[in-house]
Amino acid sequence: MNKIVFVEDDPEVGSLIAAYLGKHDMDVIVEPRGDRAEEVVLREKPDLVLLDIMLPGKDGMTICRDLRAQWQGPIVLLTSLDSDMNHILSLEMGASDYILKTTPPAVLLARLRLHLRQHVAQPTGEKPATGLMQHKAIRFGTLSIDPVNRQVLLSGVNVTLSTADFDLLWELATHAGQIMDRDALLKNLRGVTYDGMDRSVDVAISRLRKKLLDSATEPYRIKTVRNKGYLFAPHAWDN
């Protein structure tokens, strides 16, 4: 059984998520205060830390930064703050992932299990570097996306993207496995609501597929979900 420390000040959210994860072989310790989080983590020695951002005493970003210098396990931020800047900042602070509270529980569970597997698979004695370099890129098979240098590599080859296209790819990749509708993409990227006519997202998706060697007729890496939106397939980049 994996042990998780979940730092969350909302008792309803804390109990619901703890109960769900508990049904899937995870022992969850809920700590409501940010200023006690590091003490609890260092005492309990969990397999993974799950952090809210808005916390009493100390915010999740600061906890993540301070904890990373002392503890090398996975740190996942679970938040209602849907912000690219917060997402990037969390990675720079040392977070392993940034997940929205609106994420379906099954997807949350799958992503936590992924981080737990990756941590266990790390060679004995090899400790990840702290700071920016450790978390500056996210990877899916042969695809690497670096938000700090805004660089994309596919099978080791640099993929040149415009600023807008990189932002779109980042938005899709950081919501891997989730359907993103045009309205959500336009709101997150441009701060406007989809009016039913704007085709800029569709055009940008087509450009991304071409540059990322996805199929134009039967895309499998950035999938079209009819009448719903687009889905970045996290396991479609192995070759």
Describe the structure concisely.
The protein is of the alpha/beta class and 239 residues long.
User: Ends: how far apart?
Assistant: 33 Å
- Radius of gyration over C-alpha positions, nearest whole angstrom: 18 Å
The fraction of residues assigned to DSSP E strands is 15-25%
**What is the 3D shape?**
elongated
Largest sheet: 5 strands, parallel
Contiguous uncertain segments of 5+ residues: 123-135, 191-198
Query: Would you count the extended β strands for me?
Result: 12
> What portion of residues is helical?
25-40%
SSE-based structural type: alpha/beta
Oligomer: single chain
Q: Can you list the strand order of the major beta sheet?
A: 2-1-3-4-5
Number of helices: 9
Describe this structure in words.
With 239 residues, the chain is of the alpha/beta class. Helix content is 38%, strand content 21%. The protein has 9 helices and 12 strands. The strands form 3 sheets. It has a 5-stranded parallel beta sheet with strand order 2-1-3-4-5, sandwiched between helices. A hairpin with a 2-residue loop joins β8 and β9 (157-159). The radius of gyration is 18 Å and the shape is elongated. It starts with a strand and ends in a 7-residue tail after the last strand.
